[in-house]
Design goal:
The structure holds 2 protein chains of 2 kinds. Chain A contains 4 helices and 5 strands; from the N terminus they run βαβαββαβα. Chain A is an alpha/beta fold. Chain B has 9 helices and 13 strands. Classes of the chains: A alpha/beta, B alpha/beta. The interface between A and B is large, with 52 and 55 residues.
């Protein structure tokens, strides 16, 4: 079991998506690949941006699908952070796969 | 670069200010203003400072007539004359009440952004319900600028909290490539209006043609920011190139209905405005007693709709403990 406690890393406002992406690639993805479960502990984090949470988990969801949620626990989320996590999980899994790819045009 | 500050320019009536901008020559800066009264939104100050910084970077000259009027206290305190290289009016001696505003701040790197956010709370002396929306919007919009705009002067931000009306006003400006140029990289858009319309839709980003974005960009920042204004029943502005999208207020007695296509919201969308090479974002947020910012963020989830076939609720699969 691997625990990432965000307060010590990003403070009470989780907004630095560079840090989030780095945690994803250096901590979360390798742990899950090794069969470990990961606790994302938001204790003390009072606000998180959608961009932070996206950089943290979206690519894991898109590349591994909803089963990756079995390996991740979101701990101590305040309502705002919980809402952002739910939004990111929802759109990341909705847009998995090639069916979401299309050329956008307003013409 | 010619900018005229009118007697009043806020999100509800900003078109007049935008119509008077002349950004065609970035080798000189001319500032004029109303001779008796100037009271403008932080977005107006952010754009003006950004334009001035661009001219400074080009080694240009500054000119203009600055009237000695009391209302210039505000732009002076906001730091406008740190960027506009003209002497501020000498009569400015009184200070406004502290803790109500974030002065103009130039942000050129993520380190600058981290520092600006860290400085923000002690500067405001405000409760969480006021500080949180400002922190959130600063972070999302400035990161957009730093990642996508190629602005040679970075981003300019400013914010004001009006305690009497419990309204937060925020402005973010850059002098980069603009939304049309950015969106054109992966999307078939012919003008600024089309580019702005696409950029405001959730899941569409200028960094990929895929709905939902990439591992690093979701294409959601502008949609979230617009939604924050909408759910607080206030206004949002996005000006780039020759077009300016403006989300209008929802009446107090009406429920907010948020659409993923911005032109389905109550809005104004003038085109043919003077060309601004970068992007200007303005947002007003009502702070309601007892309503936390997190409540606004939660409401956005229900409105976040992507144009994809698959629709299934995954929320119950998330392990929250």
């Amino acid at each position: 079991m691997k625990t990432i406690a965000f307060l010590a890393i990003v403070g009470d406002f989780a907004e630095d998506k560079d840090v989030a992406a780095s945690l994803r690639e250096k901590e979360i993805r390798p742990a899950i690949a090794a069969g470990e479960n990961v606790i994302l502990d938001f204790a003390g984090v009072t606000l998180a941006t959608q961009s932070f949470v996206h950089a943290l988990i979206s690519d894991l969801l898109r590349t591994q699908g909803e089963t990756v949620l079995n390996n991740i626990e979101f701990k101590n989320c305040v309502p705002g952070v919980k809402g952002i996590v739910e939004t990111v999980v929802q759109y990341s899994l909705e847009t998995m796969g090639e069916e979401a790819e299309k050329k956008t045009s307003l013409k | 670069m010619k900018i005229h500050l009118p007697n009043g320019a806020h999100l509800r009536n900003i078109t007049g200010f935008l119509s008077d901008i002349d950004a065609s020559d970035t080798s000189s800066f001319e500032l004029t203003m109303h001779p008796k009264w100037v009271f403008v939104h932080p977005a107006v100050l952010a754009l003006t400072a950004c334009a001035a910084a661009l001219v400074t970077a080009n080694g240009g000259a500054f000119s203009g007539v600055i009237p000695k009027i009391r209302s210039l206290n505000y732009p002076v305190r906001m730091g406008l004359f740190d960027y506009v290289k003209l002497p501020p009016p000498v009569e400015i001696i009184e200070h406004e009440e502290a803790g109500r505003f974030i002065p103009l701040t130039q942000i050129k790197s993520t380190d600058d952004l981290r520092k600006a956010i860290a400085d923000l709370v002690p500067l405001l002396h405000a409760e969480k319900e006021v500080a949180d929306p400002i922190k959130y919007v600063f972070s999302e919009m400035v990161r957009n600028v730093l990642e996508h705009s190629k602005s040679p002067v970075g981003a300019f931000v400013a914010a004001q909290y009006y305690a009497e009306t419990k309204r937060i006003a925020i402005g973010i400006a850059d002098a980069g490539i603009g939304i049309l140029e950015h969106m054109r990289q992966y999307h078939d858009v012919k003008d600024s209006k089309e580019a702005i319309t696409l950029a405001l839709q959730p899941g569409i980003t200028g960094t990929t043609s895929k709905i939902g974005g990439t591992e690093f960009n979701a294409g959601a920042g502008l949609f979230f920011t617009k939604s924050i204004a909408s759910f607080s029943k206030n206004m949002f502005l996005l000006y780039s190139g020759d077009a300016a999208y403006r989300l209008m207020r929802t009446a107090e007695n009406r429920p907010v209905k948020l659409n993923s296509v911005p032109t389905e919201d109550r809005h104004l969308f003038p085109t043919g405005l003077p060309f601004w090479p970068g992007t200007l974002v303005g947002i007003d947020i009502n702070v309601t007693q007892g309503v936390e910012f997190s409540d606004l963020l939660n409401q956005i989830r229900g409105a976040y709709y992507l144009d994809v076939k698959r629709k299934k609720d995954f929320a119950h699969k998330i392990k929250f403990t």
